[in-house]
């Protein structure tokens, strides 16, 4: 049982008097009052006042007295229950007197996480400033409960509805702008000025609509929000700031990691008809991959894309590859770093995504030859740039000897986001079924599967952390593997020369027991025998 007291008090007041019984006045001549507290005669009434508790805790580390108290309870039992809970938590090591807020704790937690990669730290800092602190930062850690975190996600869902309305508004504005543009272009000359004015107004409306937030916060992003907050609260539990991890019982939309789908002829036809992608992760067939490589052979990023198609580095690993890690004699490339960006779009180097991400990949002969050609071209471009800088230093800055394999004309590396944007624009101009730049990595896996490589070899090629991740992602990627898997059980069953077909479509049969007729390929009279 807790050590302390349960008592009742109220806010009733009475005039303050001195030793002679005269009222005490303030500087303005008004009588001073005092609360009756536990001395109010009306406390015996059931509905008068409220219940309080105080708990005697062991003295603090500096010998300070610790007697936390709290009131406002409607019944004695409620106050006693709260006091007992506080006493139990204190004896379990919980710092029941802490007034640290959620904001203060989260900032302290993040500053102590020296083990985080820079990209992860930037993401967590963004979550803190944009999501957690506005919704939860004002609460103390002792006040925080599951309902507060749940309400935070409910606000996210409500904002998603607003962004959905913004997307529809932008689509309607785009359609109206295009209609106004066509009306102006198709008008007979001299074109009426009001048509041009209408088009300009439509463009202004479209610009305003596109300025509104439209990007949905999907289940995957919500899971990242919850996982990061849960990690912080686990640390709070370890510090004995809170009794349990309040994020554990929060319910958010279920997130299922999208699995790659192949662009089959049927899916392409549907996409051309509706514009909808079957999945957020799509993979080209070998034929489509060949079409892409043939169409982009003269592009300045072709060598990088060729490397991604056949050897599967991530985009940050490709843009972060340096000549120092490419062995042109042996035909290998060491993947030891990647280029990533923070929320301000600034680039920095970081180790690969997982421990197994640091790997050495063998270059296929085609990529090997392309890299040799590209190295010579890069040297020529450097000489050309340095000549431009010599003639016009104000327009052309000095060449940057960055050491990266894939660089712009001035020697600086490509930003991964810009490579993705160029890739997306190129696919639209080629009218090819859309995939993400990252999906070239899935193309590398599918081509390796089709070529007969084992899952273990593909895991090593891609730098996956586990074999399970590779198998779950790519086991049924290519259609030919699905056909082989479907035919394999049939091949195990010995059959007579012939096949069973249903006669229900051509003859009247018993509805409860349709009969099957054995039809021999030879077409002999025995074909009329029925099978029980």
From TrEMBL:
It comes from the Bacteria. Keywords: Coiled coil, DNA recombination, DNA-binding. Residues 18-40, 511-532 are annotated as: Disordered. Residues 279-487 form the Tyr recombinase domain. Pfam families: Arm-DNA-bind_4 (PF14657), Phage_integrase (PF00589). Residues 160-187 form a coiled coil. InterPro entries: AP2-like_int_N, DNA_brk_join_enz, Integrase-like_cat_sf, Integrase_catalytic, Integrase_recombinase_N, Tyrosine_recombinase_XerCD. The keyword Coiled coil applies. Belongs to the 'phage' integrase family. This is Site-specific integrase.
């Amino acid at each position: 049982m807790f050590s302390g007291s349960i008592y009742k008090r109220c806010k009733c007041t009475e005039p303050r008097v001195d030793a002679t019984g005269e009222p005490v006045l303030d500087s303005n001549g008004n009588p001073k009052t005092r609360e009756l507290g536990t001395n109010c005669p009306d406390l015996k009434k059931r509905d008068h006042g409220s219940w309080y508790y105080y708990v005697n805790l062991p003295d603090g580390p500096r010998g300070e007295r610790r007697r936390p108290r709290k009131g406002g309870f409607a019944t004695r039992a409620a106050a006693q229950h709260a006091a007992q809970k506080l006493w139990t938590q204190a004896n379990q090591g919980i710092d029941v007197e802490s007034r640290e807020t959620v904001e203060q704790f989260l900032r302290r937690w993040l500053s102590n996480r020296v083990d985080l990669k820079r990209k992860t730290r930037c993401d967590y800092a963004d979550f803190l400033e944009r999501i957690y602190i506005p919704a939860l930062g004002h609460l103390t850690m002792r006040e925080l409960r599951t309902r507060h975190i749940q309400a935070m996600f409910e606000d996210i869902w409500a904002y998603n509805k607003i962004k959905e309305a913004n997307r529809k508004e932008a689509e309607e504005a785009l359609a109206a702008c295009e209609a106004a543009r066509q009306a102006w272009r198709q008008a007979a000359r001299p074109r009426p000025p009001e048509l041009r004015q209408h088009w300009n107004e439509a463009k202004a409306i479209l610009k305003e609509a596109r300025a509104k937030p439209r990007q949905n916060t999907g289940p995957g992003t919500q899971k990242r929000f919850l996982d990061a907050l849960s990690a912080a609260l686990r640390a709070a539990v370890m510090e004995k700031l809170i009794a349990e991890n309040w994020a554990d019982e929060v319910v958010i939309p279920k997130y299922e990691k999208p699995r790659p789908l192949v662009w089959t002829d049927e899916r392409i036809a549907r996409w051309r008809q509706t514009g909808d992608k079957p999945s957020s992760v799509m993979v080209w067939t070998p034929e489509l991959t060949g079409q892409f490589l043939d169409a982009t052979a003269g592009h300045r990023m072709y060598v990088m894309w060729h490397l991604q198609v056949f050897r599967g580095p991530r985009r940050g690993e490709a843009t972060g590859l340096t000549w120092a890690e490419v062995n042109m004699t042996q035909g290998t490339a060491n993947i030891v770093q990647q280029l990533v960006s923070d929320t301000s779009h600034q680039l920095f180097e970081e180790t690969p995504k997982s421990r197994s991400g640091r790997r050495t990949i063998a270059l296929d002969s085609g990529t090997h030859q392309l890299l040799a050609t590209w190295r010579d071209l890069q040297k020529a471009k450097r000489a050309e740039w340095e000549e431009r800088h010599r003639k016009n230093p104000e327009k052309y800055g000095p060449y940057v000897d960055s050491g990266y394999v894939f660089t712009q004309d001035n020697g600086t590396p490509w930003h991964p986001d810009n490579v993705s944007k160029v890739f997306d624009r190129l696919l639209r101009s080629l009218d090819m079924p859309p995939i993400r730049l990252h999906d070239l990595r899935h193309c590398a896996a599918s081509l390796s599967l089709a070529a007969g490589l084992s899952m273990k070899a593909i895991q090593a090629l891609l730098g996956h952390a586990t074999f399970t991740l590779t198998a779950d992602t790519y086991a049924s990627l290519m259609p030919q593997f699905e056909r082989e898997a479907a035919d394999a059980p049939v091949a195990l069953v010995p059959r007579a020369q012939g096949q069973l077909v249903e006669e229900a479509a051509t003859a009247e049969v018993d509805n409860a027991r349709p009969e099957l007729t054995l039809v021999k390929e030879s077409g002999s009279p025995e074909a009329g025998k029925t099978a029980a």
